[in-house]
Amino acid sequence: MHTRALVLFSGGQDSTTCLALALSKYQFVETVAFDYGQRHVIELEARLRVLEQIRLQFPQWAGRLGEDHLLDLAVLGQVSETSLTRDMVFKMEESGLPNTFVPGRNLLFLTLAAALAYRRDLHVIVTGVCETDFSGYPDCRDDTMKAMQLALSLGMDKRFLIETPLMWIDKAQTWQLAHALGGAALVELIVEHTHTCYQGDRTHRHAWGYGCGECPACELRARGHANFVANDAVNSDLPTVDVK
């Protein structure tokens, strides 16, 4: 029954890799993003370029790629005092979490994605959360995803599958996975068109893509890319890619 998927697609490296995986596995794929007042709103523009380039460069996927959705979630910005939704300096809080943590964000994203999937008759919800390269966000944990899958399936009386293909791999392996799925063309697309920088910097071009080079997102992406290159991606042990 799992042939139609909805990808939570922000236009960043992780969600683009997840989209490529979904397009390789499922017969039909739609995408959804959320405008929640994020400071790096430029990602909402980048995602459209990524979708356009995927259609142009990967004709084997273009026929499977369906409608894109953008949902207004401004209320999340209203209730969140974080460096992603306010003009604040990045820092660690007393809780041990960075102030980039937006409480409830992924829970709301998944709930709305499931409601959309219900209406669109989509069976799988794909998200790029992970426990390997993350800052301890509780709504990125595998236990949270399993609990949400159960709650959404019960609450909507529809058997959803929440797929988290990046959950147990690091950022270098995420680059490797992209290479396994789409070769050098997909890696270059991610470098040139995706956006991850918390500062919304599209003026500084690095080997790993655009960004300020200093925020946590840029540092993580840069370190992963350096390891990916150093390890010779073509011959490295890649995460298992289950494609149809």
TrEMBL record:
InterPro entries: QueC, Rossmann-like_a/b/a_fold
Pathway: Purine metabolism; 7-cyano-7-deazaguanine biosynthesis
Note on cofactor: Binds 1 zinc ion per subunit.
An annotated Gene Ontology molecular function: ligase activity, forming carbon-nitrogen bonds
Similarity comment: family membership: Belongs to the QueC family.
Binding annotation for Zn(2+): 197, 212, 215, 218
Broad EC category: ligase
Record-annotated membrane-spanning stretches: none
EC number in record: 6.3.4.20
CDD domains in the record: QueC-like (cd01995)
Record's keyword annotation contains ATP-binding: yes
Pfam family name, one: QueC
Keywords, comma-separated and alphabetical: ATP-binding, Ligase, Metal-binding, Nucleotide-binding, Queuosine biosynthesis, Zinc
Cofactor(s) of this protein: Zn(2+)
Binding site for ATP: 9-19
HAMAP family, A to Z: QueC
Biological process according to GO: tRNA queuosine(34) biosynthetic process
Catalytic activity: 7-carboxy-7-carbaguanine + NH4(+) + 2 ATP = 7-cyano-7-carbaguanine + 2 AMP + 2 diphosphate + 2 H(+)
Record-linked NCBIfam families: 7-cyano-7-deazaguanine synthase QueC
Function: Catalyzes the ATP-dependent conversion of 7-carboxy-7-deazaguanine (CDG) to 7-cyano-7-deazaguanine (preQ(0)).
Annotated protein name in UniProt: 7-cyano-7-deazaguanine synthase
Keyword ATP-binding annotated: yes
